[in-house]
Amino acid sequence: MIDVEHLSKSFGDNLVLDDLTEHIAEGEKVVIIGPSGSGKSTFLRCLNLLEIPTSGTITFDGTVITDPRVDIDGVRRKMGMVFQHFNLFPNMTIRKNITLAPVRTKLMSQQEADDAATALLRRVGLEDKADAYPAQLSGGQKQRIAIVRAMAMRPKVMLFDEPTSALDPEMVGEVLEVMKELAEEGMTMVVVTHEMGFAREVGTRVLFMDGGHILEQNEPHEFFAHPREQRTIDFLSKVL
Amino acid sequence: MDLAQTVALWRELMMSGDATWWQEFFVRFYQAFIEADRWQSYLEGVGITLLTTALALAIGVVLGVLVAMVRTAHDQQRIGRRKNPLLGIVNFIFKIYVTVIRGTPMMVQVLIMGLVIFKSSRNFTMVGALTLGINSGAYVSEIIRGGLMAVDGGQMEAGRSLGLNYLDTMRFIVVPQAIKAILPSLGNEFIILLKDTSLISIIGGQELVYFARNILNRTFDAMFPLIGAAVIYLILVIIFTWLLGKLERRLRQSDRR
Known about the structure:
The structure holds two protein chains of two kinds.
Chain A: E1 2-11, E2 14-24, E3 29-33, H1 40-47, E4 55-60, E5 63-64, H2 72-77, E6 79-82, H3 94-104, H4 110-123, H5 139-151, E7 157-161, H6 169-184, E8 188-192, H7 196-202, E9 205-210, E10 213-218, H8 220-225, H9 230-239
Parallel strand pairs in A: 3-8, 3-9, 6-7, 7-8
Antiparallel strand pairs in A: 1-2, 1-4, 4-5, 9-10
Chain B: H1 3-16, H2 21-34, H3 39-75, H4 85-103, H5 106-117, H6 124-150, H7 153-161, H8 166-196, H9 208-219, H10 223-251
Helix pairs in contact in B: 1-2, 3-4, 3-6, 3-9, 4-6, 5-6, 6-8, 7-8, 8-10, 9-10
């Protein structure tokens, strides 16, 4: 579904991603872990071109999205993204947060979008918050809304950029629960996270990144039970 | 004895130095505001002042938004990606505009517009409004640019990641948040604008100060017409501030918890 070939990204002289090649198949739940500064967030953000790669190509659903002529807005509509800091729109109600993009991009009428929003909110148990503003919600609620907002565009893949890192510990569970449900429904997911439990339980594949490279990858149980690289062993010994 | 006769009598007392202070006060008040229906002049002046302010405001906001949008779009271009050459040229022109307008006194701008560029025009009010609008646009653009830059970058990313294009993201997400943030400074700018309309009297714009000075020249009394004008400006600004406060409270709706 997503083919990344020879992807490099540098900020000025700082080479953050160094010649990455990776394939993500439909239905996979790829979990990316690694120390901070390893390039995992940049890699994820390159997938929907929030960061423009310095070189290399990314193919999504048969389209070479790194081609400058491609309609990037059209591509992004099929890729949902959830951010560490939620990035809900504070000037709109929750309902409006969810329905703005589907309506403006003509994916749905306002009525359809409202119905979809109600259904999605019910799924995450927040239907009573439809007319609230983001400032009135807790962090966990905000992140669940952010997931719902991305889902409203009916994306083919969901990208998660450390979705639980800005949450109070007691709120992490409710967000992971929503993500787990999403995974069970067969959504293709790419998740940058520090939640090793989630990686083990939900992931179909774990990538370990360091220094702009994918150092090691494996099926989760094998990955956590028998890490091969010394760098991976060091990292896991610190976080587990 | 009617009012005019009373005043005539008191005026004679004033001449001979026998009037009490309140008789003198009343006579001066009378000749500044009531005699020959002069209050109508002030009213006409206020009308022109408000009209000029409204026109200048419209020009200033349109120019300011345009300049701010172009300059922000220019500055937000990704490093490493080919830049839009047209955007570069327009940005450069707007930068010169802001520099020139902010770098020269308003009085000089009014004089140049009235006596050089539009020297054959007799419509001083319109020339004045245009000058003030162009002047205000430069300041408003910097205020708006500041507001746009103050909105968290994650908002633009979130909008774009949902598939909204740049303009939609600006229009529905970034700009509304920026407006809320800049409303106090924008209100400040508008108050300055309202008061600066007084400058167009030097090229013959018939606003409040113009009429106040006319009356001054006729009655040889400076205090009452000028203080009268000052009080009128003050009242206008107070009303304006009150309206702005209401608007701010409405925009803060989404902040309630």
